[in-house]
Specification:
The chain has six helices and no strands. With 146 residues, it is mainly alpha-helical. Helix 2 (28-52) packs antiparallel against helix 3 (55-77), helix 2 crosses helix 4 (81-88) and helix 3 packs antiparallel against helix 4 (81-88). The chain is globular and about 55 Å long. The chain starts with a helix and ends with a helix.
Length: 146
């Protein structure tokens, strides 16, 4: 049953990422490869979380991998890497965590709100730092070789 749940989850990430790509007017190969990146990222997250059991660290590692994937695909497709990375990272947006943080705030459960909000901020920071790290290194490498 675990394999089936993982397969459904990964395929849902593919379809969801594809939908966001359509919403952002991404077309052709860019849509295909950004969607595959979202599926790859979600699968990697699921595997890492089973092994590491540290969500923020998993988000950081996956954001690095997906940002590298986006840089490589951007060179191959001759397009900017940022839109590919943004769309591919959609499955990792911590919307559920943010929802529960706000729900705790509405209920007046401030201790749980603070804990969940800090966790959500950690997830968002892990994504951001991973993206910025990869894009900065890639830009530095391109600048040195120009």
């Amino acid at each position: 049953m675990l394999v089936l749940d993982t397969l459904i989850s990964v395929l849902s990430a593919l379809v969801g990422t594809f939908g966001f790509g359509v919403l952002f007017h991404v077309k052709g190969k860019k849509l295909l490869f950004s969607s595959l990146g979202g599926m790859l990222g979600w699968f990697l997250y699921l595997m890492l979380f089973r092994w590491l059991d540290r969500e923020v660290l998993c988000y950081f590692i996956v954001s690095i991998v997906i940002s590298l994937y986006s840089e490589v695909m951007a060179r191959w497709l001759k397009t900017p890497a940022t839109p590919l990375a943004i769309i591919a990272l959609i499955p990792l947006v911590p919307g559920g965590s943010l929802y529960y943080a706000i729900d705790f705030a509405v209920e007046g459960n401030w201790e749980s709100f603070a804990t969940k909000a800090a966790h959500t901020a950690g997830l968002a920071a892990a994504l951001s730092v991973g993206i910025v790290l990869v894009h900065t290194v890639c830009r530095h490498i391109r600048w040195k070789h120009s």
